[in-house]
Specification:
By secondary structure, this protein is mostly helical. Helix content is 64%, strand content 3%. It is globular, with a radius of gyration of 24 Å. Keywords: Membrane, Transmembrane, Transmembrane helix.
Amino acid sequence: MTAVHARTPLPAGPETVPRKAGLLPRIAGLAWCAVILWLLCSNLVLPSFGISRYETWAAVLGGAGVLGLTVAFPWLLARMDAGLAGLRWLRVLLSVLGWSVLFSCQARAADAVRLPPDWDAAPVFYSALALADGAPGNVDVSYFQINPNNLLLMLLLSKFMETAQALGVTDLRQSVAYLNAAVLFCGMLLTYAAAALLGGRQTARLTLVPSIILILFSPWLPVFYSDTVGLLFPILIFCLLAAAGRCRWPARMLLWAAAGAAAAVGYGIKPTVLICLAAAALVGLFSIRRGRWRQDALSVLLAMAVAGGSFAGMHGAVQAWERSSVVNGDPASREPAIPPTHFLKVGAQQYPGPNGDYYGAYNEPDRLGTLSIEDPQERFDAGLQAYRERVEAMGPAGYAGFLNAKLRWITGDGSFFGWGEGGMTADQFLADDGLSRSIQDFYGPGRPGFGFSLSLWQGTWFLLLALCGGAVFLRDPRLAALGPVMARISLLGLLLFLMFSEGRARFLYLYVPYFIVLGAVSLQCLPVLTGRWGATRRGRQPVEDGAKVVE
């Protein structure tokens, strides 16, 4: 469970190079790249739309423009660095100012496009508000007993609301909008840090433009829910593991423990967070070097023990907090939770949407059918039986075609199913001042600027898919390092999970930082940029000639 940074020259002595991942993880990662290329090409030729319908030509033009900005922005910042050489204090000041301006713009946009809570976000918000107001009787107990996966998010939000009220805040909806913006902003900072750990400053700067479009001004900026909050955890875990690979043992163990604790909290908010920690363990186990198998095996097993123990401890603490909450009252009156087989059942059906079929998406009749069965074991068995019947009805070839169509549909929506849940509409925005209404024109379906935003989101997403999938054609050691391979295996695991479970593009969103980081690394490894930014340096030694490997 280690990650590495990309090769950088040492002032003297041998070159620093990344440690290569094992053969099996590299092959699995390349297989993921090939799948991504197929999904991209098929969606360009025959688009699979979510709730919103984009124009392919506009999205492609948008992606080309984003590519130009993505490359030009780091070049411009590098020129500024050169002009301010020797004035480090001024560079730091300008950097802080730049990040502050970005967050200020994002917070203003979040305030403008906030919406009344709807669908599952509604019981989370109003129940948290009830706890903050000291009215536990108003908590939607039945909802959280059926959907315990949202309980931790509600409890955390209630603590935030209590703190905001103690500070004299009266508009809690506005405060939650700012909280949503702050969480996404931290996700952008961590995306930048992850890329810096892998490839240095230039690679980190390549993440800025895609992050601004897909994270800072996220399609989900109007809604505080587990998809935006959950985005923070996979990239945080990645950064902690990458930083552990650059530290000595005492600090390394602390970072492993922090990664396990973060995974436990993230798992309580969005269970798919755990995939990245499992991927790190698998990549570590299958990357043990023959010549150093004792040291590598000890390091990986120790990392797994520390992170696993930390995860277990934090998970136990989270469960104890949840059990002590108002939701867990009289056991005799508890509503049994929806079992995992329900989501397996939902993931094997399709129905017409506004712009084409929906595959494996939320289905109200399926939900009501599950809830109509009171016995927990019967619920579990009924879900599994319904899944079997649906798969048998499709047949092997039909089910394979269904899974392909489902993955195409999930990965084809660069707005990540924004506005596709509940009854959200573009006439429900809470802010009504002039500037807010101008900003809303770019966020609401049917508004005059929404087509531009949709093309920008979709074009950026297509660009990231092209860069991530295109890595299969590049031969650069940085792409075969532990860090990028771990990210690919994480995303492979996520696709496999969504392929069989309930899914839609929204469920991809918390791993968008991984796509951005992998896209930046691929872009940095393109020969045209390698030559321009001096990655091929005079006097570079091959790995075999005494290069230093960084764990």
